[in-house]
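Notes from hallway chat w/ T.B., transcribed later so I don't forget. T.B. wanted the structure written out for a chain they're using in a teaching module, and asked if we could keep both sequence and structure tokens in one place. Agreed to drop them here.
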Amino acid sequence: MIHLRFLSQRKQQQPEWWSDRDRILIVVGSYDESEWVTSILQSRYRFDVNINDDGIVTLRRDNAPTHLHGILRSEIRNLQHLPTQIVVAPLMALERGHNILNAQGKAAFGAVLFLNRPMPIPDNWQSTVQQLNAWALKHEKDYTLYEEAQSISGNLTLTQVADIFYQNAVAEMVNLNYAAWAFKQLTQDERSVLCWTQLVSIWQIIGRLVRGGVPAVVHFVDVKFAPNSAIDEQDSEVTSLLVAIIKVLEPYVESEDVLARKTYCLSSFINSTLAD
């Protein structure tokens, strides 16, 4: 596999950064997709002298039947002791709480491939809760929610304010459940919320690969990440999730705040990845 050869070359050129990191994490959307992709890769590379079925494995839930081949989610931290070179895993399974290190205490994976663009699954309450939480944070000081009630009743009690906020939140929840999550159809507000949500998940995965202050190779494989760029045309925040993420980060570029400057570095990283 070309990426493993690339990582091996990096290891020879810069061993202080890349030694014992010639492993690849392939990120997909679900455990079912993970198993399917693993089976395809195993059949493709079965006769490769360097990669066998133990070298390419799927991540499994901790309660998976014991006869199934793969690595349990809770055991991924022991990757350094295994012959595994490629792990296929769902995005949400490794987004936090996992230090996957090599024997030198640095990130065990040298490269990550985001095989498909992450988007909310229809009727998935986890996505609805994330979107509703973003709405609540945005509108917690939105006094326009109460203008109509104030014009009728005058000053409102705390209980009345809470009831009005709750009613608006329920209405927003209903709208979210009926929202069509085709990226190009999103409003600016919907797109902004989606970008922050997906950015967190994507960056937490990438965070697994920079443990110990080492660099990482990151590829966004799915053409839907930037469909126009795939045909040598320019993408915008309306067509590309990556461009849209860069746009939501742009307000932090000129900030003097330390966190904002770190956010800008992340924006620059995504931009360079998109250019590649």
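Follow-up for T.B.: The first helix runs from residue 2 to 13. Might be a good example for the class.
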